[in-house]
Amino acid sequence: MAEQPKLLGTLPSPFVHRVIWALKLKAIPYEFIEQDLTNKSPLLLKYNPVHKKVPVFLHGDKPVCESMIIVEYIDEVWPQNPLLPKDPYERAQARFWVKFAEDKGTAVYRMFSSKGEELEKTKKETLEMLQTAEEHGIGEKKFFGGESIGIADIAFGPVVYGLEIIEEAIGEGAVFEAHRFPRLHAWIKNFKQVPVIKENLAERDWMVTLFKNRREALAGSA
């Protein structure tokens, strides 16, 4: 029997959740190895010597790093319940929105550690990212790829869910308002209601408390 793949990660990480969702959607058994990023393990340093970050996916003794690269690798190795469309053009479109989430979604996480003018700048960048996804990404579809979760949804899930948590944690006024982004609000509601996602979503109140404490710690150290 083949050895189960392993996932090195930490559960507060939105990037680790991308990989968990892909594995669960494909019903792939795996071993989760919790990492302490304040005291990085020899295993993490061995298998991700370049960035020394999670997630790291171990398939046998072969490490794969970076969350969306891991998700695409999983989709290629385990073809059941495909996350990428078969049609080449649709695959290209899905990859476009994955890259968009990767490139523009960072503004959401920079909101967490920003204040004053920098916070206003990251809010503006976040609004622009949401507006683009609202108008050109999700459209009238249930999910980015249509009626079922695909790779672009996995890429955007932590960005939008993370935004909801960060907004509550920092208490600096809402950016992700339902009247401004009705399609994305409907999309994230549908996304969180999918059983595999719902069962493997970081608990909101716990995450808000965690982010509040970390923000206070950052302010204290500054």
Write the layout of secondary structure elements.
Layout: E1 6-9, H1 14-25, E2 31-34, H2 42-47, E3 56-59, E4 62-65, H3 67-77, H4 88-104, H5 106-112, H6 116-138, H7 151-170, H8 182-193, H9 195-199, H10 204-221
Parallel strand pairs: 1-2
Antiparallel strand pairs: 1-3, 3-4
Helix pairs in contact: 1-3, 1-7, 4-7, 5-6, 5-7, 6-8, 7-10
Shape field: globular
Specify the number of helices. 10
Q: What low-confidence regions span 5 or more consecutive residues with pLDDT below 50?
A: none
Into how many domains do the coordinates divide?
Answer: 2
Question: How would you explain this protein's 3D organization?
Answer:
This protein is α+β, with helices and mostly antiparallel strands. Helices cover 59% and strands 7% of the residues. It contains ten helices and four strands. It has a four-stranded mixed sheet, with helices on one face. The protein is globular. The model has no long low-confidence stretch (mean pLDDT 94).
